[in-house]
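Q: Hi! First time doing this. I have a protein sequence and I read that you can turn it into a structure. Is that right? Here it is:
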Amino acid sequence: MTSPRKAPTSAAKSARPQLSRDNWLDAAAGEVAAGGFGNLRVLTLAKKLGVTRGSFYWHFRDHEDLVVSFLDRWRDRRLHELQYWKPKGGDVETELREILELLLTDASRNIRRLQVELAVRDFARRDDYAAELVAQVDASRIAQNCSLFERLSSDPERIRDLSLLLYVATIGSQVVLTGKPGDAESIRRIEDLMARVVLGRP
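A: Yes, that's right. Below is the predicted 3D structure, encoded as structure tokens:
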């Protein structure tokens, strides 16, 4: 005869994985993507995560600390990802097309990433700290483009112009392409147009 199964204790019932700071920031990313920084409220995040506001204050001093931490993580991740499309010193046109394919194909699949980026840029129009971080990301992305075009020209102004043109064209293309699944032909066509324009090809 089997012994009766013991009922779980109240401690076992209430046990749940402890939330990390990143768990809160991930939840914040969903809110920012959905409605911008005006959508970022502590009580809303706590409800979505199934915890009390006390858990929030274990990780953050206040709402401002949450916003600053979110912006810092956004900046750090954008700078880190530059390594994935860093020029390697090979043929310029080949590398340019590979970079464009990576940036535009990924953009067409990752709606939330672009939504967060646009929200951060919108917030930067009225928040000095956000504006500072956006400027850092823009400068780093353009500088990386410069390292590619330095192999095409010795004219610093032309290098800078090509790098800026590639950057704004890439951002604009990501906005247009994001959320359009199965549109590989459009992506390839835009990649080709952008490559030919910045390389000065007919």
